[in-house]
Amino acid sequence: MSELVSFEKQGSVGVITVNNPPVNALAQGVRQGLIEGLARGIDDPGVSAMVIIGGGRTFIAGADIREFGKPPQPPDLHSVLEKIESSPKPVVAAIHGTALGGGLEVCLACHYRVAVAAGQVGLPEVKLGLLPGAGGTQRLPRLIGAEAALKMIVSGDPVRAPRAKELGIVDEVVGEDLRAGAVAFAEKLVAEKKPLRKISAADDKLQAARQNPALFETFKKGIEREARGYLAPFKCIEAVQAAVTLPFAEGLKRERQLFQECMASPQSKGQIHAFFAEREATKIPDVPPGTPARKIERAAVIGAGTMGGGIAMNFANAGIPVTVVEMSQEALDRGLAVVKKNYAGTVEKGRLSQADMDKRMGLITGTLDRGAIREADIVIEAVFEEMAVKKDVFAALDKIAKPGAVLASNTSTLDIDQIASATSRPEAVIGTHFFSPANVMRLLELVRGARTAKETIATSSELSRRIGKVWVLAGNCDGFIGNRMLAPYLREAEFLVEEGATPQQVDKVIYDFGFAMGPFAMQDLAGLDVGWRIRKGKAAARRKDLRYSHVGDRLCEQGRFGQKTGSGWYRYEPGSRTPRPDPEVEALIAAAAKEGGITRRQVSDEEVLKRCLWALVNEGARILEEGIALRSSDIDVTYLYGYGFPRYRGGPMFYADQVGLKQVYGDVAAFHTQHGEPWTPAPLLERLAKEGKGFRDFSR
Ligand code: 3H9
Q1: Domains of the chain and CATH, by start
Q2: Mean pLDDT in residue range 665-686
Q3: 22 lines ligand 1 (CB under 6 A)
Q4: For residues 425 and 398, what is the distance between their CA atoms, to the nearest angstrom?
Q5: Does the global pTM surpass 0.90?
């Protein structure tokens, strides 16, 4: 037997256990072991049925993603499944943890499935830019109908065992002792002489879809907006359609073809990169697992503004009591009313029960008394983005907070070391850059100051995990990872419009590339005033010999702060979020260009794309070389989760690697010749390009 799969007899039931930690992925040894285990059960006259179960914390979480792209090693998964389904003795899948992707496909080849109540099943391949490639798109519709299968396969979201039972995926939800429950279930099958249920031979559940051929077009239309730019969701639909229109064997062939198409596309490479990048980001070389961390039982947030309120919701959502401190009753009432309104909106949409909303609101306590933070294990300051204000707050926190508490600043640009210098405990100070709206956006940038203790990092990262954030550790510099890269990106976007592009052209190019929105629509949404305030603070230090676009400042001088004031880079009809081009802005741009001595010209879409993207990448290269980001994939995670970079392109640094750094460097060098100093190629970009390497090859 393969080392990764064991076979044991329990009475007359052969128990085949997969032991490939951490997630029992279907590596070559597991596939081989499953075949061997089955053969033993089939050949042994003392065995009347078999159970396939996962050792450790989960059933099988899918194919081994790390094997993708390598030469395939026999046996392939198809032949394993074929052997399971054609077994003359019943095979029962016993599910705990997660049965995902190829793992669920194994279950679907079994004749019956049982699960513990906390078990989950799903086909998440679409999230990796793929589709279930081992019969999942053919068997699931035959088991639960095409419509329900489409929902699961195209969303990739798992369902819990009780729901899986309702759908018909799971035959029985068993008690905590899964093995005992599954063996008893198998014994009963034998005793009652139940038939071998082969899903591949079933057909009745497909009838509804056959009578409603419009189902697939309607489904496609329904996902068009959300799945814009993605290949895999549409291929998933095609594959399910094949289940309805073709015999099983033909459908399998079609599925395999579509799977290969997805696998060969750059999208799956980008999405698989994103999967591993997100996990890699949590690994901090000098803060290994096991680093002492403080348990967070209570939290406090200073400031009940948009950010403070959103941050408080994160704690309440995770069941952590949180005190929100404000300066005036009015500001506190306003802030808490917004929190309540946000929750009420979610209740209205049916995504939260009233009871849960009440519970969460009950965890949030508002106060004007700063002394109330005494109990908190972490205090997050979320006041005005101004150094003097932040330092005052930290000096006060230092006097009140209990020893060992983490003192965090929610800043998007400011120097964490300076903030920490206002306290007597810089080791407890860390930056927590939440993204707006803080209760929705997944990204959290943790910012490590020069003296931030490992324990502070370990505590903050554990907390990030608890509140469901994807987090990245950044070094301390102006703008950290995300906003430092954003600055040259926005700079180029504004230069491009001065040179002859329009905001709508730039936004369309970036949107069509796959971003959630272009730079101008994004600024209008975020509000132009914050950036303006920051720019004013830095005006004295700005080098007058470098080109500077005044258009953004002029807009703010006219009170055009974006959507919230009804106008910014665009104008907005009352109650509408649709950006409309504004002749007044065009005039402003033309005037600024004239003032700057710029002759306006036709700017190509290609130039727009390259200048915006390579501005990000060139700064990303500096960030990497300086150690502000630990690895290029951390930069990708930041952009995927914080800035709406298209996931199927893997992130800016991965995308640059795909294009080839030689090409990227060539473009940057050409821009440098044309536009001067701001385009000085980052030394790392130049070096890697000349060595024929990519950012992925860089390590410290
Ligand atoms: C597929 O099945 C295709 C088939 O349809 C057709 C084939 C022909 N492979 O997430 P965690 C690693 S496609 C290899 O931190 P959690 C992961 O990188 C697959 N490695 O744990 C990490 O490694 P490290 C469809 C995998 O408890 C470690 O395991 N399946 C795989 O938070 C722990 O992972 C999926 O897409 C894998 N399949 O969450 C499921 N999965 O420690 C993908 C995980 O070195 N997996 N690793 O950083 C997941 O969604 C989560 O990992 C899971 C556990 C929910 C299972």
Answers
A1: 5-261 (3.90.226.10), 299-479 (3.40.50.720), 483-697 (1.10.1040.50)
A2: 97
A3: yes
A4: 7
A5: yes
